[in-house]
Each structure stands twice: as C-alpha cells, then as structure tokens.
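re: ur msg from earlier - yeah i can do the zinc ion complex, just paste it... oh wait u already did. ok heres what im feeding in:
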Amino acid sequence: MNYSPKQHLLRQNVIVLWFNFQEVGRCWTRGLFWCMMCVGFAYASKQGLADTFWKEIGVIPAIIVSAVAVVVLAAIVVARRRARDARRDKLMRAPFPDDWKVHIEKNIPLYNHLPDDLKEQLCGLVNVFCAEKTFKGCQDLEMTDEIRVTIAAQACMLLLNRKTKFFKKLKTIYVYPHTYVAKQTSYDGVMVIEGRSVRLGESWQNGPVVLAWDSVMGGARNIHDGRNVVMHEFSHQLDQEDGAADGAPILDSRSSYITWAGVLSAEYEALCTKTREHRRSAMNKYGATNPAEFFAVITEAFFEKPKQMQRKHPELYDELKSYYKVDPIEWVQPGSRRPKL
Ligand SMILES: [Zn+2]
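and the outut:
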C-alpha cells in the first residue's frame, strides 16, 4: 500500500525542495553547472593540458568569463520562459475556430453541461494544448482536427481552474484507429513472461500518451458510465509529473498530503476488499490494481458520476474537488441523463 502519510510528507518535502530548486533556481543551477564545467576545464588545463593558455588567461578572467556565462544563460532561460507564458496567454485569449467548437459540441456531451466561463476557459486551454503537443496517427490513421480537438478538450477538462504546466512531460499523442495490441512483460518470481494485451490507451512515464480513437469516442459520448480513456490516461500524466506514478499528484500544500493519504488509503483498501470479495462498487474495480490506477479510475468517476461518488464517497469526492478545482455536480442538470448532441 503506497498511501502512507509519512511517506508522502517525506516525499512532499523532497518535492518542495526540488521544485523550489527547479522553479526559483533552475537558471542559476544551470549557470552553476556551466561555471563548474569551466573551472574544471581550467583546472585540467592547468594540470598540463594547456599550461601556457592558463598562465596567459589567469584565474580572475576565467571567473569573470564564468560569471558572464551564468548571467547570459540565466537571461536566456528567463526570456524563454516569459516568451512561452506570453504565447500561452495569447492563445488562451485567441478566437476559437468555429469548426473546432462544432467537433467538441458534437463529440463531448460533457462540454455542453459546462457553465459559459468554463467553456471559454476550456477553449483557451485547447488552443494552447493543440499548439504545443504533436498528434501522430498510427496504422494509417489520418490525423484530423476532429481527432486533435476531441482528445485535447477531454484532457484539458483536468486543467480547468488550475495553475497548469500543460502536462509538461508530454510531447506526443499517438492515436490508433481501434483498440490495439501491445507487447507486455510480467514477472512471476524469477520467470519473465512475455505476452500481448489489448489496450484502449496508455500513458508513459516520461513519454507519450497512446490512445485508440474508437475508445476515445466511446468514452466521450457516454458521460454517465464513469469511463473515459482520455481522462484516465491524462490523469496518469498528472500523477507522473513528480516522477512517480503512485496515485499522489503534486498537491497545493504539505497539509494536503496528509488528508489525501488518509482518505485515499481508506478508499483504496475498501475497493481492494470489495474486489476480492466480488462485491459491487460505484467505482471501476480496475482501480484496485494499484494506487496509480486507483487515481485514474476515481478521476473518471469524479467527472462522469459525480453525484454517485459524492453520495457514496463524500470525503473522496471532496479531495478530488479540492485537487481539480471544479465541482462536476454543479454541471449535472436535472433530467440531463441523455447527452446533448
Ligand atoms: Zn491506467
């Protein structure tokens, strides 16, 4: 079981340190790295590789050159980050193509339940997503705007109202026309078992998302079954942002990890018990596979079966509401059992 509060507090401390290091000091650490490289090169030179050169240049000029290199590198990094943020702001406010909106309204009934402000925000997020990510069709699937936008809009539902890095590790989404067969390696003691499994989608820790287009459409059109392969795979991407696929994405504060660990531990154990005893559950029993799959499964249920989840698992619902910064119950209007097309 991986939801130990102690473990998450420890990991969260490491995460805070690491992210502070990255966010505040990334440019300086890169500069420091290059500075150390320069000093190391100079030292090696002094040891005989370029003795004459060292004597002529001297220590002080070498330090000055290194310092200048640090400042230049820092300036480049800051400038690139500002340019990226400005580009994203512009895309968030850019007009949304009419044909893209038609695809979303037709293919994603959940979009039609969103309040107007969230619809507008989602369109901006889709603009950024489609500009930054590459889509590739597999098995001769011709990539179209409909495929791109339908996937992007569902993925970006997970980003609404949140300070987001737009799935920063993700560069490419591969799309198969139908469910596909992938090689699978499993272990039984010292035995390595090679096999094949049929897949709807998958998310790689430091790489792409792979999706089957027919499953994408099936998941999008039924908004009450708690199954959505795009939300499932992209919740894995959120989970993996801190480097570990363990069902604990990056949360807002240290205290959040304590309640997250407590609530999700209990709910995960309960689902595992129900699965072992073949009892019914509001959640897909695939979530009992491990904490990472549990987070993906409850994300699907949160967006597609919010009332049921809130009624049967109120604490879990509140944790996800706090994380995702939306309340899907507000979107579900009375009598809206059938998707609006
Ligand atoms: Zn999964």
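cool cool. The two ends are 42 Å apart (CA to CA). ping me if u need the other ligands too
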